[in-house]
Amino acid sequence: MGFFDFGTIFFLVAAVVIFFQLRNVLGRRTGSERPPFDPYTAGRTRDDTQKPENVVSLPRKRAPGEPAIDAYAAIDAFAKPDTDLNKGLRAIKDNDPAFDPKTFVDGAKMAYEMIVMAYADGDRKTLKNLLSREVYDGFVAAIGDREAKSEKIQSSFVGIDKADIVSAEMKGSEAHITLRIVSELISATRDKAGAVIDGDPETVAEVKDVWTFARDTRSRDPNWKLVATEEED
What we know:
By secondary structure, this protein is α+β, with helices and mostly antiparallel strands. It has six helices and four strands; from the N terminus they run H-H-H-H-H-H-E-E-E-E. The protein has a single domain, classed as Nuclear Transport Factor 2, Chain: A (Roll).
């Protein structure tokens, strides 16, 4: 019995010693440890103080003497203040707080290339998503006429040299922005026999267009659509 008691005490002491050694090596959980490394979210900025999703943060009240944030700063940097263009862009900003002129121009340039190439390829599906109903009908009519004659357009888009906003205005709830776009394009139209009947398949041509894009600022759809086209001489 004495041996049993001694053995029991020995193992108890050994267990306590091992416990404290492990505690010193591994540390204690406090509930504030960082989660394990996740390679799919490691590149994102993590906010350890993130609030629950059902909490809405109200705007912070400005301290006395603190300058107000200029909601038109990006517009004033883009178009000279007190000009018609600046006033038009400000009116759009008033109706669409997320509007940024530089971001718009970048998007319009991408849309321009997509539309030009979709028209050359006869891609009606792409055009339908980017054009207003009236412009779409005109483009589709031209494509249909071309197909009826068995003609094809051979095009290569080189790039856009300039894309400048020339006017902006609100028409009711619709924002309208007109751009002057200067691009470079290689384009040639061939008949059913393959002969070139318009353009040049080996020459880069400069193309000048004046396009107007619009969107309803009341709509949840953030996309703009082409509503008018004009080729500049």
